[in-house]
Specification:
Length: 180
């Protein structure tokens, strides 16, 4: 899941927890400006926020920035604790940026809530998940570096008497069925 923040109208602010002079959307804002305006401060579940890797910032129904989230900070305000995301807008060429930047807000649920969560198909390959070798560590790829080789070697030991040649002969014999 990704998180989507909807920018309000442009307004100048004083005593902003992030030290900003203004918040909200204004025409022709850059991606960095949209991220800075949209990354906080929000009333959100810290548990939920800590599981988001990507954030979309929307203004006037269009995605103005796509950012990678690296953490969050908490801020005491008169109206309770608020959270601001840390991270940076994605560089040109990143698949998530290219898929959403400048396009309509993908969360079109009619809700007035500026904070929403959405599933983005493009983020699936970036989600942190258990390393497939079974080492109980996590990775944003199928395997941590080198763990794919380790997993294959383990299977050679377990099922092919430690002989890579036996594995290869087995695969050559069965690959057509496996691939199908
Ligand atoms: Zn592993």
């Amino acid at each position: 899941m990704a998180i989507r923040f909807k920018l309000g109208g442009y307004e100048t602010v004083h005593g902003d927890p992030l030290g900003r002079g203004y918040i909200g959307y204004f025409p022709r804002m850059t991606e960095d400006e949209a991220w800075e305006a949209g990354r906080g401060v929000w009333k959100v579940s810290k548990d939920k926020i800590s599981r988001q890797r990507f954030a979309l910032i929307a203004g006037e129904g269009i995605v103005r920035a796509v950012a990678e989230v690296t953490g969050y900070t908490e801020h005491r305000t008169d109206t309770g604790t608020r959270v601001a995301l840390e991270g940076a807008s994605l560089p040109a060429g990143h698949p998530l940026r290219e898929a959403y930047l400048g396009r309509p807000d993908p969360v079109a649920n009619g809700s007035q809530n500026p904070v929403s969560y959405c599933d983005l198909p493009e983020e699936q390959s970036y989600l942190v998940r258990p390393c497939a070798c079974g080492c109980d560590q996590t990775s944003d790829r199928d395997f941590l570096p080198g763990h794919d080789v380790r997993a294959i070697q383990q299977r050679v030991r377990d099922h092919f008497d430690g002989s890579p040649l036996k594995l290869i002969r087995f695969l050559d014999q069965h690959a057509a069925t496996v691939a199908g």
